[in-house]
Amino acid sequence: MKKFKELNKATRNNTVTYIIVALMFVFCIVYTETGMASNLFQGILVPICVNVILAVSLNLTVGILGELSLGHAGFMCVGAFVGSLFSVMTAASMDAALLRFPLALLLGGVAAGIVGILVGIPVLRLRGDYLAIVTLAFGEIIKNIVNNLYVVTDAGGLHVALGVDAYNAMEIDAASSEVYINGAMGITGTPKDSTYIIGFVLIFITLIVVQNLVNSRTGRAIMAIRDNRIAAEATGINITKYKLIAFALSAFFAGVAGALYSHNLASLSAIKFDYNYSILILVFVVLGGIGSMRGSVIAAVILTALPELLRGLDSYRMLIYAIILIVMMLVNNNEQLSYYKNKLFGGLSAQLSGRSRKQKEVS
Amino acid sequence: MNFLSYLISGISLGSVYALIALGYTMVYGIAKMLNFAHGDVIMIGGFVMFTAVSSAGTSPLVAIVCGIIVCTVLGVVIEKVAYKPLRNATPLAVLITAIGVSYLLQNAALLIFGSAAQSFPVLIEVPDWEITEGLTVTGVTLVTICVTIVIMIALMLFMRYTKPGAAMQAVAEDRGAAQLMGVSVNSTISLTFAIGSALAAVASLLLCSAYPQISPYTGAMPGIKAFVAAVFGGIGSIPGAMIGGILLGVIENLSKAYISSQLSDAIVFGVLILVLLIKPTGILGRKMAEKV
Hints:
The structure holds two protein chains of two kinds.
Chain A: H1 2-6, H2 9-33, H3 39-65, H4 72-90, H5 97-123, H6 128-147, E1 149-154, E2 157-162, H7 164-169, E3 178-182, E4 187-188, H8 196-214, H9 217-227, H10 229-234, H11 239-262, E5 267-268, H12 275-288, H13 293-309, H14 317-333, H15 335-345, H16 347-352, H17 354-362
Antiparallel strand pairs in A: 1-2, 1-3, 4-5
Chain B: H1 3-31, H2 38-54, H3 60-83, H4 91-113, E1 118-119, E2 129-132, E3 135-137, H5 139-161, H6 163-173, H7 175-180, H8 185-210, E4 213-214, H9 220-233, H10 238-258, H11 264-278
């Protein structure tokens, strides 16, 4: 224990996060392997992993880069569809899921990362609320385009159409054709490769990459831009480059999460990835504490499980979810209420999020 | 249908966006927050009018007045309960709270009215107007455009020539200085929410009359589009919201008619991005000087 205290603060903080995730992982294995877990519990494990990765990756944009992004679900959408498309197309030729699935995850991530760079170049010139609304607009555009995308193969090769009119106008050899993406119907027949074990591995990879990035030279440059753009520029930091690194990396992990998500569902349509999903991810980040990776992990787990835990309350559950969300925000952010909260719970909440402890040290 | 009729229905749709966008832009200008629950206030207004006519059997006029009163009260109550305690918190915290309020209203409506869309009763009975051969403007379109013009002129006069209007401008300019000059910041913000929500009720009447259906999700998409319209025109600027709203409606309708009906959303958002890249603070937005 004494040795642990001698480590530098960032390493100590990160290790606690890894331990928390590892404990959750062990709990899940023990709980499911002993057969105690209900179907409901097993069913929400992969969505929890997906949301944790999404929350951590969005926290990179919102917390470390300091830009509000409302289009995270759009990147997830790209990753989900590219990953699924790859798996469906290669399912026949590549039998082993062990090889195919990591490739699908990687491809989904890379595709989302490329879209992230393409979106980021114009978007990152804007600031504040305008940047937020443009990311929202890009998210909606991605959703809208994927929702009208048709990908078909036949003897003549690959055909891609945008919009139902273009699809009907295409000349397809009906006998040999196979529809992969069918517009608003989306993509069906994705192999169910996602397991919570792969999900946890991906959470670890995401956390290792993000937390090490934050404590690296690059991460410090990104945070310098967040804290004072002009001062950072004056010290010779290339603003565009570092902003793009953070944004693209965030999009990459959103894409990986998307591929994980899509390989958990038999059919997938783009309509799921609307701005409500982006906002849901933002809620994880803000509630967990902006900039705190551990907070994001915990908030994503709790808020994904909460609607399921409240299932007994039936139709009232989303109403109660909304009330809990409002009350939590009020308690955490109102000076008077948070004073009472600290009196009641004392160090507990400070223990849970590394961020608030840091703030206390400053004040 | 020809170009002119597409244009007129576009202006009509845009007028509704403009009314909603006014609510967003006034609240943003004065309270410096994005009120995500605004779209759901529209939906609640629609349901109040729907219930008043279908269940209580009141006359359309009474229903409309009820809708406006309920929305106004709701807007003020939301502000007092959810936003006022967070006046000194970060903008992001307020944004998430607003999202929570939006979930709350949506799910409350879902519990009371169910998720299925119900047909909205006819509240506006105005005969269609045939301008020339083949060009007919429906009564609802006519009423929408007229009502919007009247409201906008009234709002401009209110901001320009009344004391509360001046107080609003002062609070928007500098909250602290306004308070020192004896402006009651809290009541000014409440008034802003009241006006914005009353406009939302009017917008819900016009929206539900033009597309006679109502469900708990009715307000979501028009809310987002109107938000985009407010940014389009320069958020915080009242004339900007009007121009942005009408432009957005026209672009949406024309792209539906001439380019692709499925991809109209992508085109609308694409135009927004283009405008913001060329003029990063919107059409009428002011560029703030940056202090080093």
